[in-house]
Every structure is written in structure tokens, then in C-alpha cells.
Specification:
- By secondary structure, the protein is an all-alpha fold.
- It folds into two domains: 66 residues, no CATH class; 56 residues.
- The chain has three helices and no strands.
- Helix 2 runs antiparallel to helix 3.
- The protein is flat, with a radius of gyration of 29 Å.
- It is a multi-pass membrane protein.
- It is found in: Cell membrane; Membrane.
- It catalyses: a quinone + NADH + 5 H(+)(in) = a quinol + NAD(+) + 4 H(+)(out).
């Protein structure tokens, strides 16, 4: 057998391992299709006018479903995400900072990180985003 035959045999064995993955994916898709099909056949369907109305918090819908939100709310959400990510990085850093090998370089890196967060907060403050009016 030549070198090409060995490579083809190796590739066949390599791709044969994916048949198991393909079979599991197909079995999962078949299970989902059977479950959804059985649900559709077995459930009762009696649509009425009341059942087809939009329901939200027990209040009957009045007017249109379109409502605009002020961009300030999105900025508050963005600021929350920024500070949540900041907390995610600060807590693990604080727990390992006292361990040997984490010296001044780690402290400087954390102050650089906090500096970036502070610049973002300063920018939001200067733009007047943090004023709730």
C-alpha cells in the first residue's frame, strides 16, 4: 500500500468517528420532531376570540403595541453591564492578589483596568447620562 493509501485509510478512520456524532444529532432531531408532532396531535384546540387576544399582566390591550423607549434606559443598562463585568474581574483578582508571585505588576494592571472603567464613567457623567430627569 502506498503513502496515499495510508492517508486515505487514516482519513476514513478519522471521519468514521463523526458518524457517531451525526447519528446522535439525527436521533435528537427525530425525537424532537416526534415530540412536537405528538403534542400537536394530542392537544385540544378550541380557539376563541378571547384566547386570540394579546394578554399582558392582566390588562386588556389598548391602542397600538408600539412604544418607544428613551435611549437613556439603554445607556443605564450598558453602564450596569460595564460595572458588572468590572466586579467579575475585581473579585477574583482580590482573592489571589495576596498569593506569592502577584506583586506590583498585578497591582498596576488592575489600576489600568480601573482607569478604563473610570474613563467610561467620566464620559457618561460628562454627557449627562447619569442625571435622572
Amino acid at each position: 500500500m502506498g503513502a496515499e493509501g495510508v492517508v486515505l485509510a487514516d482519513n476514513a478512520g478519522y471521519y468514521a468517528t463523526y458518524t457517531t456524532v451525526l447519528l446522535v444529532v439525527l436521533a435528537g432531531a427525530a425525537f424532537a420532531a416526534v415530540a412536537f408532532g405528538a403534542n400537536r396531535m394530542l392537544r385540544p384546540t378550541r380557539p376563541t376570540r378571547e384566547k386570540l387576544l394579546t394578554y399582558e399582566s392582566g390588562v386588556d390591550p389598548v391602542g397600538e403595541g408600539w412604544a418607544q423607549a428613551h435611549v437613556r434606559y439603554y445607556v443605564f443598562a450598558y453602564l450596569y453591564v460595564v460595572f458588572a463585568v468590572d466586579a467579575i474581574y475585581l473579585f477574583p483578582w482580590a482573592t489571589v492578589f495576596a498569593l506569592p508571585g502577584f506583586g506590583w505588576a498585578t497591582l498596576v494592571e488592575m489600576f489600568v483596568f480601573i482607569g478604563f472603567i473610570a474613563v467610561g464613567l467620566l464620559y457618561a457623567w460628562r454627557k449627562g447620562v447619569l442625571v435622572w430627569t
